Amino acid sequence: MKPKESAYSGERAPVAPVTSPAEAVAQAAPAGNAAAFTQPGHGLGSAGLLEAAKSDLPSWLAEILAFLMRTKRVWLMAAAILVGAAALANLTARAAEWAKNARERRQLHAVATLTPDTLFARCGAAAEDVSKEVYPVVMRTLTYQPRGGEKLVISFSRTAEEQSDWVFLSMQGGAGAASYDTSEAKIAALPCLDSKK
Asked: What is the pLDDT of residues 2-28, one digit of tens each?
């Protein structure tokens, strides 16, 4: 088996003298060889362009460029890992936002469709159920006392007609001090509202 040649060489690359473009044209013209005047790397692809770029660069910059070209796979893998991590972080953030929005929509729907019947189905019988008719409206208040918490008074109303639907009005603390304005606050005070019954 043939030993693998080292990619590094102890020899320095020859450095071309710095000349102006006019001098380079003047030196190439007396040679009389038209092929010598062609651009370096023409038609050779990226390897030819790399060689042409190396010949015009200072030696330290050419060494850095050669190092980067030898370790191109490592740099590409590192870039792919960074892009993948950014995409994963973005996907995770979007999934968390989607779950939060779904929970808020479910809670909003649970409170918006609340009637005395659905309240009984979700939370059981009320501790107190009082109806009062003030023509043309019927008011109904249901009082619940969740596990050791303060009393919650939930108010509904409907028109005096038999076929009308109940409309959820408000939820307040028993002393009237606490008012639960958002769907999230209502469900936090009475968690059974969020059940799927």
From this structure: 666 666 666 777 766 666 665 655 555
Compute the distance between CA of residue 119 and CA of residue 142 in angstroms, rounded to an integer: 9
DSSP category for residue 6 = P
By residue range, what is the domain housing residue 33? 21-70
β-pairing, 137-144 with 152-159? antiparallel
- Beta strands 167-173 and 137-144, pairing class: unpaired
The total number of structural domains that make up the chain: 2
Judged on CB neighbours under 10 Å (0-12, 13-18, 19+), 21 is: exposed
Question: Could you tell me the two tokens for 143?
Answer: 């009082």
Please check whether residue 30 lies inside any domain of the structure.
yes
CB contact at 8 A, 28 and 37: yes
- Asked whether residue 128 falls in the same domain as residue 190, the answer is yes
This prediction has a pTM of 0.52
| Phi, psi dihedrals of residue 157, rounded to the nearest 5° | -145, 160
The token duo for 88 is 């994963």
The answer to whether residue 14 sits within a structural domain is no
DSSP letter for 149, please: S
Residue 99 Cα to chain centre, angstroms: 12
The type of residue at 124 is G
